[in-house]
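Mods, move this if it's the wrong board.
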Amino acid sequence: MRLYASRAEPVKLRAAALGLAFLSSATIAASVPALADATTAQQILKGMSDFLKNQSSLAVKYDADVEVVTPSMEKIQFSASGQATLARPDKFRVTRTGGYADVELVSDGGKLTIFDKNGNRFAQVPAAASFDETVDKLRSEFSLEVPGADLLLTKPYEALTAGVLEAKRIGTGVIEGIECEHLAFRNLDTDWQIWVQIGDHPVPRKYVITSKAVGGAPQYTLRLRDWSFGAVQAPEAYAFTPPPGSRGIAVTELTDIDEIPSGRVPGGLQ
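Not the wrong board. Structure tokens:
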């Protein structure tokens, strides 16, 4: 018995060792594509970011959908459309038209104007020295977002990848008939996806952000189309001329200009 056992034990150990070796090899083999996909995803995102930041001027049209979750866990979606024109470093014009607000943001490099078209009223404040700083100002001081702003910053790659824990290339997708690279990224509180056009103009065509920290995981979806680059616009294109009958007000008086109507969703639309 002891002789049998002494001979069998090495066999069992070798078998176990071979099993562990097989599992380790399988694990390594499975992880290599994942690592490769992560590197590829980062490279594609970097290529897109470099292309955008190197454009001194650009224009794009967009459609946006934002979801909210009611206390009863019902998802409600609000939609808006608009366009953005940017002349680096400090001039831009962005419009957003939805079911509850029609707003235009204009910076001529000296003044930033927020125009509420529905109320025919506007507020003006000093503009920041760059588009990036103006975006920060709008966010921090006025709780206003420029749709897709992170894509248009001076360093979009750094802004997009801040806090990224995981990256992967999903494959290819088709957005409005255009073949794109489909990428997915994970942050602590959000998951986000981006579809980047394949070819010489690697522009984003779709951008989806999922808020994991909010019950029901609502999403923000941005579709981008009709990109154009290099068209030099006269400075007047970024000047704001008050329409007839409009009135200037303090920026603190500008309310109800968000994509989501305040106070409507929890109790139902009335």
